[in-house]
Specification:
10 strands; Rossmann fold; globular; 245 residues; 4-stranded antiparallel beta sheet; binds adenosine-5'-triphosphate; disordered C terminus; binds magnesium ion; alpha/beta; 6-stranded mixed beta sheet
């Protein structure tokens, strides 16, 4: 049985520049659960993460975390309370070495942590590179691992992953599969993952929510969602055939 939701939003409405970007969107996720979020380009997936993480304040609705309304809480306070988020592009401070990036992440957010915590986090995500390497020289997968390690040191309870498999080859996607399962099923995090690689979500997601032009049009177990005619019309008909699971 799935536990009660740890993290949720209800009736989110977001307008930007006079345009309605999100309209009455509600999603939830429980500890150990993986919620996949899909939808065509521009559907509002990243915008939803902006609201959930605290980067943008919605005009309507609320964000709930661990029984509290955090809608008005800053991104920093949400991060401190245990809500972590990755971005579509794995941007790293190019000139800083891996060691320096991990240290800067510790000092910025959790100065009591030591380099042992950083090593623990790197081992968890399987970041096996020379830590003197400039982070700008890392391949995409290792950049993503480094940024994840920076977040994991804080032991978040909620992880929001925005397209963690973008730009990766299939064998690398398998590593993302393993990492995301580990976050949820071993570390017990509540995970929301936005992804266009539907074969990844078909394998790891417990539930999938589908956004289309800012509205949630379907939600359920992956096989039911992928078969839903509304989802096929809104999503698959516009996608390359190869992304269909
Ligand atoms: N700052 C902004 N001002 C106005 N419109 C914006 C802004 N940011 C995003 N949008 C618009 O909001 C809509 C949703 O964008 P969003 O980035 O959330 O989509 P997405 O589902 O993440 O797409 P993708 O799959 O391409 O990453 C798009 O039409 C986008 O152009
Ligand atoms: Mg996006």
């Amino acid at each position: 049985m799935v536990a009660a939701p740890l993290f949720a939003c209800e009736g989110i409405g977001l307008s930007l520049g006079g345009r309605q970007i999100l309209d009455d969107v509600s999603v939830h996720v429980a500890p150990r659960e993986i919620l996949g979020i899909i939808g065509p380009n521009g559907a509002g997936k990243t915008s939803l993460f902006e609201v959930l993480s605290g980067r943008r304040r919605p005009q309507r609705g609320r964000v709930l975390y661990d029984g509290a309304d955090v809608t008005r809480l800053s991104i920093q306070k949400r991060a401190h309370r245990g809500i972590a988020r990755t971005y579509q592009s794995p941007v790293v401070p190019n000139s800083l070495s891996v060691t320096e990036v991990l240290k800067a992440a510790r000092q910025a957010t959790t100065p009591w942590l030591t380099r042992h915590h950083a090593e623990w986090a790197c081992a968890l995500v399987g970041l096996r590179v020379d830590h003197d390497t400039p982070s700008g020289a890392l391949e995409t997968l290792n950049r993503r691992k480094l940024l994840l390690a920076c977040l994991l040191m804080r032991r978040p309870r909620v992880m929001l992953l925005d397209e963690p498999a973008a730009g990766l080859i299939n064998s690398e996607v398998d590593e993302i599969d393993t990492i995301v399962r580990m976050l949820a099923k071993e570390l017990g995090m509540a995970v929301m993952i936005v992804e266009h690689r539907l074969e990844l979500l078909a394998a790891i997601a417990d539930r999938i929510a589908v956004l289309d032009v800012g509205r949630k049009i379907a939600e359920g177990e992956p096989e039911h969602v992928f078969d839903d005619p509304r989802v096929r019309a809104a999503y698959f008909d516009n996608e390359e055939a190869e992304t269909t699971p």
